[in-house]
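User: Quick sanity check before I run a bigger batch. Here is a single chain. Can you write out its predicted 3D structure?
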Amino acid sequence: MSRVPVLEDLPPLEGKRVLLRADFNVPVQDGRITDDLRIRAALPTIEWLQGQGATVVACTHFGRPKGEPNPKYSVEPIRARLAELAPGVELLENLRFDRGEEGNDPAFVAQLIEGFDAYVNDAFGASHRAHASIVGPPQHLPSAAGRLLAREVEVLLDMREHPNRPFVAVLGGSKVSDKLKVIETLLTVADELLIGGGMCFTFLKAQGHQIGDSLCEDDMVDTCKALLASGASIRLPSDVTALGPDGVIGDPRAGGDVRQLGTSVPAGWKGLDIGPGSAAEFSDVILEARTVFWNGPMGVFEDPRFEGGTRTVAEAVAETTGFTVVGGGDSAAAVAQFGLAKQIDHISTGGGASLELLETGDLPGLAALRGEPT
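Assistant: Done. Predicted structure follows.
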C-alpha cells in the first residue's frame, strides 16, 4: 500500500481554514458525556494545526439519526466539551442529520467543503465507511491523515505484516459471521487464535458438543467445521460459565442458577462466559506472546456473574511483556472498566475499522487520502 499523506505534507496553513473530520461519537447520558476519550484523542492534531496558524472547524457523526435532524442526536454536549479542551475550534452539527452523508452525495460534499482550504481525516473509527465526509473532501482539497489516524494505520498494519512472534490473536463477541473474514486473515498471520464470547458456541457445536440455549449461528456450523479441520491453530474454551433456565441476563436479582460446566451445555441453559479453566489457559498463551491482538469480550461482562473470563483475559493482556493491541469497541470498554487501559500499548478507537484494516489491509478513507489532489 502506498503511503498515506500526513500533516507535514499539507501546504502552508497560516491564515487558512481546515476542515477536520473527527470521530466524536462519544457516550452521552442525560445530556452529559460519560467518556471524552475520543475528543481528547483529536487534540494532538488540533494543536498542530492551530500551531501552523490554521483555523480549525471540526465535523463528526453522532448516533444514528437516520438522515434527519433529531434533537436527541445534537452535538451540543460535544461542542461544549470541545470548547473546553480546544478553545477556538468550531464544531458543525451532526453530519448524519443530512442523508447525503451516508449516501456519499456529491452535493453534500460540495456544501461541506465550501470555504475550506484543506482537509484532515482523524476519524479512524469511521474510515471503513465510504461516507461523504470521509471520501469526498480529498477529491477536492489538499488532504492528510491526522495524528490519530496515522498512528492507528502504522500500528495495525505493522502488526498485520511484521508481528513479533509468537503472535496471539484473541477474538470474542457474539457472531462468527461478523468476524469470519478477519478470522481467515488472522489464521494466515497469527501463531494461535483463541476464541471466546458468544461465537465460541458455534465452533463448539461444530465439534459435536451440546450447547443448550447458547447463542449459535446454525448456518455457520459447517464453516466452523471447515476452519477446525484446516489444521489451523484455533483454541476453544474447555469449560464455560452458564445460566440456568430461570435466570435473566443482566439481572442477578432475578435468580437462576449459575454453574461452571465443561463443553456440553444442558438444554435450557445458556453459556454466557468462558469458564475459569479456559480463562487460565488463554492467559498462559497470552503471557508467552510477543504480539497480542484482542477484539471482543469473552462473555457478557456487563453482568458481574459473567465478567470473569473477560477480566482474566484483560489482566493477561495488560500483564504480558509482548506488544498489545486492543481493537476498540467492547474490548476497549472492558479494559477501561477493569482499570487496565494504561497497561495496553495501543487501544484502537475503531472496532469495525480495526477489523477491516486487518482483514483487507486498506480502508475507503485511506484510499481517498492517497488519491488526494496534491
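The two ends are 18 Å apart (CA to CA).

User: Great, the batch can go ahead then.
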